[in-house]
Amino acid sequence: MRFSISTKGFNDIIDITDQVSEILEKSKVKDGACLISCPGSTCGLTTIEYESGLIKDLKKVLERIAPMKDSYEHCKKWGDCNAYAHIRSALLKPFLAVPVEGGKLALGTWQQIVFLDFDNRPRNREIIVKCISAQ
Fold first, then answer.
1. Residue 104: helix, strand or coil by DSSP?
2. Contact 128/3 with Cβ under 8 angstroms?
3. Contacts 24+ apart (CB under 8 A), 88-92
4. Helices (H), 2-100
5. Which of 128, 125, 130, 135 has the alpha carbon at shortest distance from 4?
6. Which CATH number goes with the domain that contains 85?
7. What is the pLDDT of residue 4?
8. Residues near 52 by Cβ (< 8 Å), separated by ≥ 6?
9. How many domains in the chain?
């Protein structure tokens, strides 16, 4: 199944746990895995405690790792200057697997699934969710 989200770009971080949980519930998978993906090379998926201070901290760390204003060869070649977004996506990955137990996502109490849009503009993104049974 799929769903769409609109982002602001520039490290917009969106909690998608509820949407993924709804798809899992509809799938009727009780034990297995939930595979989440976003086609694209300037986004990422991960888990984190979706708390405003921690979200700011994550953005700060990403800026240290691949600064937006650095000089990148990609920018020289294409002129779109979003190389930092591609690098962040390569590090975090635009896909994620979450175990399913008892028909629920096996997440910790303070763990949410988040989508990160690293690109340098707002985007409409499509999220693909596949729930796979272990049986």
1. strand
2. no
3. 88/42, 88/44, 88/62, 88/116, 88/118, 89/40, 89/41, 89/42, 89/43, 89/44, 89/118, 90/41, 91/44, 91/65, 91/66, 92/44, 92/45, 92/46, 92/116
4. 17-27, 52-65, 73-78, 83-92
5. 125
6. 2.60.120.460
7. 98
8. none
9. 1
Query: For the chain, how big is the Rg over CA atoms in Å?
Result: 16
Name the 3-class secondary structure at 121: coil
pLDDT of 106 reads 98
Its domain, for residue 29, covers 2-133
Q: Which secondary-structure segment (H or E) carries 50? A: none
Q: What parts of the chain have a pLDDT lower than 50?
A: none
What percent of the chain is helix, strand and coil (3-state, nearest 5)?
A: 30, 35, 35
Instruction: Name the average pLDDT for the chain.
Output: 95
pTM (whole model) above 0.90: yes
Per the structure block, which two tokens stand in for 114?
């988040």
Q: What is the pLDDT of residue 77?
A: 77
